[in-house]
Design goal:
globular, alpha+beta, two-stranded parallel ribbon
Length: 152
């Protein structure tokens, strides 16, 4: 696995191994622990299959580096969230997993979303060639942004 070498050589490059890095999950967890730009994407797997070590890291050392993903349409956000609720991932971790970590990674932390609905938060991230780039993050329902129902 070359993830550690790439992360060492390109320290400013955000790296997000997908599907929680299977079959190199423990190696990816180790790299994410000591490389600040490496995050863990949780898409592509049903949370009911998360191994105990992934849940342990999500609750502790890598709480701020876990990213929500479903692999829609194979796993709908509703199914993924329902199955996550049956894991040992603590409730206080879920707003970070669903929104805060991605917002921080994308430089959106501290910025109010452009739109806030029950289903999603939407930020205007920037523009590229005259096109506006929007970032969509599913609403967690647990944080101040989601609870406020604020509409911009």
């Amino acid at each position: 696995m070359y993830l550690d070498d790439v992360a060492a050589d390109f320290r400013g490059l955000p790296i997000i191994p997908p599907h929680p890095s299977f079959p190199w999950q423990e190696e990816a967890l180790a790299v994410a622990t000591h490389k600040p730009q490496v995050y863990i994407d949780l898409s592509g797997w049903s949370p009911k299959y998360f191994p105990p070590i992934l849940v342990q890291y999500a609750n502790t050392l890598l709480r701020d580096k876990m990213l929500f993903g479903t692999d829609f349409p194979m796993l709908t956000p509703e199914r993924w969230r329902s199955e996550l609720d049956k894991t040992a991932i603590r409730d206080e971790v879920k707003p970070d997993l669903f929104k805060n970590n991605a917002a921080r990674l994308l430089g959106l932390a501290g910025r109010e979303p452009r739109m806030n609905t029950e289903a999603a938060l939407l930020w205007e991230y920037g523009s590229e060639g005259g096109h506006v780039v929007l970032v969509f993050i599913p609403a967690c329902g647990d944080c101040a942004w989601c609870a406020s129902g604020h509409q911009n």
